[in-house]
Amino acid sequence: MGLVRIQRQLLLNSGTLEQWLAVVSGSGEASPFDALAIPSSDWAVFSVCGRFPDALQDAWAAAYGQWLATSGYALTGGPEILWNESGDTCGDDLHSEIWIPVRHL
Predict the structure, then answer these.
(1) Which segments of the chain have a pLDDT < 50?
(2) Which of 4, 19, 34, 48 is most buried, by CB atoms within 10 Å?
(3) Is 41 helix (H, G, I), strand (E, B) or coil?
């Protein structure tokens, strides 16, 4: 299984951040899109519900600034995944999940 990239975003003065808008693909068929194979991993999954983007920014900060420092886990260097239940980011209760690949220390 892998992800298919259809967008790349450049951060000014900071280098490049690759942002993938993705679908799961396992067909093996030729595609006009780039593919990223994601190796098997343990994942720390953080459920978030709240106002966009504040709730997500707070969750990212807590995951890296608090949880990771005391969890007994380390980053694998693999891609993080953000899943949003809805494309409507205007409400006060957007449900999202942050998936971070980790390994046990």
Answers:
(1) 1-8, 10
(2) 48
(3) coil
